Amino acid sequence: MGTRTGTVGLRTALAAFAVLMHIWSGSPATADTVATATRAELTGDTNRTTFQLDLTAGVTAEIFTLANPYRVIVDLPDVTFRLPDGTGQGGSGLVRAFRYGLFAERKARVVLDTTGPVRIERAAMTAAPKGNGIVFTFDMVTTAPESFGMGTGAGKAEPSPTPPADESKALAKPKRSGKAIIMIDPGHGGIDGGATGASNVLEKNVVLAVGKELGRQLATTGRYDVRMTRASDVFISLDQRLNMSLTQGVDLFISLHADSLPEQNIAQTIRGATIYTLSERASDEQARRMAEKENASDLVAGLSSADSRGDDEVKSILIDLMKRETANFSTDFSNTLVHKMKRATTLSRDPQRAAAFKVLKQTHAPSVLIELGYLSNLEDEKLLNSPEWHKKVASSITAAVDSYFTKRTAGSPAP
Ligand code: ZN
Predict the structure, then answer these.
(1) How far is the CA of 328 from the centre of ligand 1 (A)?
(2) CA of 168 relative to ligand 1 center, distance in Å
(3) Is residue 109 within 8 Å of residue 101, measured between CB atoms?
(4) How many angstroms separate the alpha carbon of residue 188 from the centre of ligand 1?
(5) Which of 1, 85, 93, 203 is most buried, most CB within 10 Å of its CB?
(6) Distance 294 CA to ligand 1 centre (A)
(7) Which CATH architecture has domain 167-410?
(8) What average pLDDT does the structure give for the chain?
(9) In the CATH hierarchy, which fold is given to the domain comprising 5-148?
(10) For residue 397, what pLDDT band results from cuts at 50, 70 and 90?
């Protein structure tokens, strides 16, 4: 007997400090407990909505809320999700939708988008009716914005907090090898799935597959020192990505993404790859929306806006401080990419655009963000899911990298 149930910590922040409340229900879970979530369900109405998660074993859970936008965050270390496809896409009651996945190494998370401010009640881990695992439940009830707002983001310690990028660090870092360092940045990951295709293909998986293939091809040339911001299905914040690029003193930063359009009427006509460079002012409305979507990654993963530098800061990008040279190199590389990629795949109608992408806010290295295609387009989705196409497109990007560095080397003054 003695079913292992686990603990639930309810975090509510009061002004500047946080109160962590533990609800005990049986014996505590040990640190090495690994549980699988097999089913998630929302019941109730817009006054009280119950979230239920079936687990194979008890774990320690921690619940807290965030505003702007209103969210409920549930941290569940060592939980693996085996939930049916599409789970969380449709909301119910006070929950618009929810998502789940790894937030950091061995740190699983569920993020519920709520329709407004809510308060958590009756959080518990109890033995399932027939002794089949554990049922983790909590209720969400509506609350006034005034009482909710106090809990916003206070006291939440994120794993390995990332200080803002410090330009001086890059300058101090000597290069270890004579090779150019190329950082590949597959977007999203873990709890942040990115865009979803018509048949549930996830952007985070597509860009990781292309990123790994690109890494393999670049390494094979023997000319580059290849780094990845992530090589598995884990969430990495935008600040962490920027910091990796800076502290590792990269020479070229390539962020990989795939887009999706919500408008059904144009989804089947709009397709193809687009290459974005950094600009304070967006080249067009679509590029602006694109950057807004990608910059929201940290919010999707349940970081509070205070944890990451917000849109305002992106807008006040230090364009004047940004070395003109870096910007010119980014444009050069974008030109080369268009030239090489058009031989391998379809490009969008306007394949070179610019917007205020936070991940491109780098003054030490030229950087581009490649939207490989549209998951909302059936033809593109098929390609984005094809290992053959991954090879082809990675090979065109490799050719562009080669051509870019050849040109730069040739252009540099003789020693
Ligand atoms: Zn993306």
Answers:
(1) 24
(2) 29
(3) yes
(4) 6
(5) 203
(6) 5
(7) 3-Layer(aba) Sandwich (3.40)
(8) 81
(9) Immunoglobulin-like (2.60.40)
(10) very high
For β-strands 180-186 and 224-228, DSSP reports them as: parallel
Q: How far apart are CA 364 and CA 171, in angstroms?
A: 9
CA distance 111 to 97: 9
147 Cα to the center of ligand 1, angstroms: 34
Q: Write out pLDDT tens, residues 22-75.
A: 333 344 444 445 889 999 999 999 999 999 999 998 888 888 888 888 899 998
Ligand 1 centre from 118 Cα, in Å? 29
- Other Cβ atoms less than 10 A from the Cβ of 21: the count is 13
Torsion of CA 357, 321, 283, 351, to 10 degrees: -70
CATH 2.60.40.3500-classified regions of the chain: 5-148
Using one digit for the tens of pLDDT, what is the confidence trace for 241-288? Answer: 999 998 898 999 999 999 988 888 888 889 999 999 998 889 999 899
Strands 107-114 and 6-14 turn out to be unpaired
User: Which residues of the chain are in CATH 3.40.630.40 domains?
Assistant: 167-410
Q: Is the pLDDT of residue 402 over 70?
A: yes
CA of 29 to the centre of ligand 1 (A): 36
- Distance between Cα 405 and ligand 1 center (Å): 26
